[in-house]
Write a structure and sequence with these properties.
The protein has 19 helices and 17 strands. Helix 14 crosses helix 15. The radius of gyration is 41 Å and the shape is elongated. The protein is 56% helix and 19% strand. The strands form 4 sheets. A 6-stranded antiparallel sheet has the order 4-3-6-7-8-9, with helices on one face. A 6-stranded mixed sheet has the order 10-14-15-5-16-17. The protein is an alpha+beta fold. The longest helix has 46 residues.
Length: 565
């Protein structure tokens, strides 16, 4: 942090590095708190820096952005923030992704773009989707360019600006209204589905009753299916099972000198020997136990063999029952009981149609009444917000040499929706006695730029973690108006970091940090350079901006401008 008036200002965008973006081979710039300006002759590439910054903030990447012959373009921005503030912003914008990111001295954004237009985005070294980069970039930097004027004409953007001035009660009403509107609309659709044609409802009732009856009468159970499948396998393979069981029994049978007899003989031998050494008695006992277990196995094998017989009739019966149950599975899915439960619930809803529709109608009516109440509170809050916004913008217009213009935020009725039941129209009366014009239909680019600046200055929602960037906000102005715009940008710079690309010496002279963009040749190729200037270099740049050339008169004029500030 560095001191800035009565409060400490954060250096938000502290460094911007750009490599292989169009004519820029490599540029690294450091920015300060307060007002930072970027100047340079037309065509030198000032807009390339703006383009690079927009890409870093999530703008769409294009293949032509990459410098010819380069493998990739890289843009990196360092945002100097305290750790707790950085962590809060990451959680706010990235959600669960923030858990993987560990900001140390701030937040570092990085984006690479390949010649085929593909890009990769990183936050503090962690790969993130471009939408996540855009969400975070929008929280760190408020970018205002020529396209911002088009956005300012968007009714939804105007309403969002107005709602910045709502008091806490009206804000809560707006949030509850939006959530409740969604819920009521969901119930309306549900009611419409229930109220479909009576004929279709009756058809569905009959069909559901048939399905439920079919499943219930079948006595379907997954356990029965599994048991039948086991029985089917046994009945289909009687001959093979009989052969295997007989062979196993013969191998064990004592009549054939098999394992049973061998085990019994071994047990007897050890039992006899244990009279001379008691240590063998334990082994003899274990062999006796094995012999008894083997006899049990042999008995069960013979019993199984006696019960095993071919039964074509039973096999036919089993397969018929299996086919019946499988047919249900093909119709209703493998989870037949689950389908049955869903069908019963649907049938219950349809049979209780009148009660359910009455309940939904009551809930919708109650929701509509609450929506009307919330919309009324929101409308009241917006009327007060419109008064405050109009007053603040008007004050700013006077400081931008537009004192004769009158600005108003006008509320107009609109079809009820999630955002309420009114829309807002920003209107301007350019001169006394002339008709009011909607800002969206305003023709003067220079005045529209100043109106936009006045509105943004009025918002007063600058967060200590927010940097403002103004790209060519001074288009179409000069003289005293340029001086007035410079003063207002300088004023904004006392509250937060401001970066502006300008062609006006009146604005450049009031900046705390000054970057000059130039174009030259290196190894036979055109390159754009950007360097921070101070002292004599800065005086010469302002002299150039004043008269298009650097001579004694322009240098003297530049010195006076700098001294005045």
């Amino acid at each position: 942090m560095v001191a800035g008036g009565e409060e400490d200002l954060l250096v938000v965008l502290s460094r911007l590095s750009v490599e292989n973006v169009a004519l820029i081979e490599r540029v690294s710039l450091e920015f300060e708190p307060g007002l930072n300006v970027i100047t340079g002759e037309t065509g030198t590439g000032k807009t390339l820096l703006a383009t690079a910054l927009q890409l870093l903030l999530g703008a769409r990447a294009r293949a032509e952005t990459v410098r010819a012959g380069a493998q990739r373009a890289t843009i990196e921005g360092e945002f100097g923030l305290p750790g707790d503030l950085a962590e809060g912003i990451l959680r706010e914008t990235l959600g669960d992704l923030a858990e993987e990111i560990e900001p140390e001295d701030g937040i570092v954004l990085r984006r690479t773009i390949t010649p085929d237009g593909r890009s990769r985005c990183y936050v503090c070294g962690v790969s993130v989707p471009v939408r996540a980069l855009a969400a975070l970039g929008g929280r760190l930097v408020s970018y205002h360019g020529q396209r911002e004027q088009a956005r300012l004409s968007d009714p939804s953007e105007q309403l969002a600006i107005l709602d910045d001035f709502l008091d806490e009660g009206a804000r809560r009403a707006r949030e509850e209204h939006a959530a409740l509107w969604t819920e009521v609309e969901r119930k309306r659709r549900q009611l419409e589905d229930l109220k479909g044609s009576e004929e279709a409802r009756l058809r569905e009732l009959d069909f559901l009753r048939y399905q439920i009856s079919e499943i219930e009468e079948s006595g379907y159970s997954a356990r029965e299916v599994e048991e039948l499948r086991r029985e089917q396998r046994r009945l289909r393979n009687v001959a093979e099972l009989a052969g295997s069981v007989s062979a196993a029994a013969a191998a064990l049978s004592s009549e054939e000198g098999g394992a049973s007899e061998a085990l019994a003989s071994a047990a007897r031998e050890l039992e006899s020997a244990s009279r001379h050494d008691e240590e063998l008695s334990g082994l003899a006992g274990r062999l006796s136990g094995l012999s008894a277990e083997l006899d049990d196995v042999l008995y069960e094998l013979r019993s199984y063999a006696n019960d095993l017989e071919a039964d074509p009739a039973r096999l036919e019966e089993v397969e018929a029952r299996l086919e019946e149950l499988r047919s249900l599975e093909r119709k209703y899915g493998e989870d037949v009981p689950g389908y049955l439960e869903e069908a019963r619930e649907r049938l219950s809803r349809l049979e209780n149609f009148e009660a359910e529709t009455a309940g939904l109608e009551r809930e919708i009516e109650e929701g509509a009444a609450r929506l009307d109440e919330l919309a009324g509170r929101l409308s009241e809050g917006r009327r007060e917000a419109a008064r405050i916004l109009s007053q603040r913008v008007q004050e700013n217009l006077e400081g931008l040499n537009l004192g004769q213009s009158v600005f108003r935020a006008v509320l107009e009725p609109a079809e009820a929706g999630p955002s309420g039941r009114e829309r807002v129209e920003f209107v301007v009366q350019p001169n006394p006695g002339e008709p009011e014009l909607a800002v969206r239909r305003y023709a003067s680019g220079g005045e529209l730029s100043r109106i936009m600046l006045a509105i943004r200055l009025a918002q007063r929602r600058e967060d200590p973690a927010l940097s403002y960037v103004f790209d060519e906000v001074d288009a179409g102005i000069g003289g005293e108006t340029a001086t007035a715009v410079g003063r207002r940008l300088e004023e904004l710079g006392r509250r937060c970091q401001v970066l502006t690309i300008t062609h006006l010496p009146q604005i450049a002279s009031v900046a705390g940090s000054h970057v000059v963009v130039s174009k030259g040749e290196l190894d036979g190729r055109t390159v754009t350079r950007a360097v921070r200037v101070e002292g004599e270099e800065r005086r010469r740049e302002i002299a150039r901006m004043l008269s298009g050339r650097v001579d004694g008169a322009s240098l003297a004029h530049a010195a006076r401008l700098l001294e005045e500030e």
